[in-house]
Amino acid sequence: MSFYIGREASKLWKRICAETTTEINLLAENWKYLLAGLVFQYIHGLAARGVHYLHRPAPTLQDVGFFLLPELGQDKAYISETLFAMIFLSFVLWTFHPFILKSRKIYTVLIWCRVLAFLVASQILRIITFYSTQLPGPNYHCREGSKLATLPRPDSVLEVLLINFPRGVVYGCGDLIFSSHMIFTLVYVLTYQKYGTRRSMKQLGWLLAVIQSLLIVASRKHYTVDVVVAWYTVNLVVFFIDKKLPELPDRSIAAATLLPLSIKEKDSRTKEENHKLLNGNSGDPADWRQRTQVNGKIMEDGNTLHADSAMNGA
Q1: Chain-wide mean pLDDT for the chain?
Q2: 53 has a pLDDT exceeding 70
Q3: Active-site residue, selected from the candidate residues 52, 222, 250, 267
């Protein structure tokens, strides 16, 4: 029993080491894209903080979702955030599953490059939208009478740049159309829909996205229009951006331990295969046999040579 556990532990450790080496090489090639995506998350937070200075509290607008869904109340507003945290953590763990599980289909670095590309494109549209028109926030801390509904004029640029994290993010107002929570949720669900392997988990992901939408409106964090716009905008963004990005390398059993070739490696391999073809060998390893040229003809082995000699009377 102890021998079996030790053997499996050794296999797991080798798998983790091999996967780590592969991902480090990919990170060395793609770190600029990841860094740019992460920097833009700060820019998005800075933009949301900036629009809070422009927010002016007013009576809540008429909303069909507010009529249909009962208000959860300020003491139950955490339910929406809890579900979002579960979705976020589940997706993050899934992107790192190749380090542990055998059923590998994705590369962690490459999948996060795609995810950040989807997020950045959606967030750019979101920033343009909520700066175009500031709606009175329906959230409890954004309503008339709340001290957090408006922000006093900043004393310095540093106060703006620090965005009062994390309090400034949690208690923001004015960044409504469209929902940031739904951007993240839909990007995660759509990514798993394409690269995930379990059908039941895909169905669960879409169900959780619908529940998240209802909870956001019931918590009065957004108007219904913020959620509706997010649903079709994010889906369209992912659809068009995904077509422009290169497809992820295949991680089938045959290619599971191979790192995707870089451009230099591809050129080198192409030259090597062309050289083999010029010397009479095909690119197929099964065809790498000794070949002899006789009377202007290339003979593959000695048996063929003897047969030709016999036919000529030799």
Answers
A1: 81
A2: yes
A3: 222
* Number of residues that make up the chain: 314
Q: Taking the alpha carbons of 294, 296, 297, 299 in that order, is the dihedral positive or negative? A: positive
Cα(66)–Cα(5) distance, rounded to whole angstroms? 56
CA pair distance 230, 175, nearest whole angstrom: 13
Cβ pair 248, 106 in contact under 8 A: yes
Q: Which of 52, 181, 267, 306 is catalytic?
A: 181
Asked whether the predicted pLDDT for residue 51 surpasses 50, the reply is: yes
Torsion of CA 56, 57, 63, 66, to 10 degrees: 140
Rounded to whole angstroms, the Cα distance separating 129 from 233 reads 12
CA within 13 Å, CB half, 36: 11
Phi, psi of 292 (to 5 degrees): -120, 140
The answer to whether 52 and 173 have CB atoms below 8 angstroms apart is yes
DSSP H or E stretch at residue 21: helix 2-54
Please indicate whether residue 284 is annotated as part of the active site. no
Among residues 120, 136, 126, 124, the alpha carbon closest in space to that of 57 is found at: 136
Helix or strand holding residue 292 (H, E):
strand 292-294
**52 labelled catalytic:** no
Q: Does the annotation mark 226 as catalytic?
A: yes
pLDDT at position 296 over 50: no
Selected catalytic residue, list 226, 275, 284, 306: 226
Q: Which residues of 252-266 are buried (b: 16+ CB within 10 A; e: fewer)?
A: eeeebeeebeeeeee
Q: Note the pLDDT tens digit of each residue in 55-111.
A: 999 999 999 999 999 999 888 888 999 999 999 999 999 999 888 877 667 899 999
Helix, strand or coil, per DSSP, at residue 294:
strand
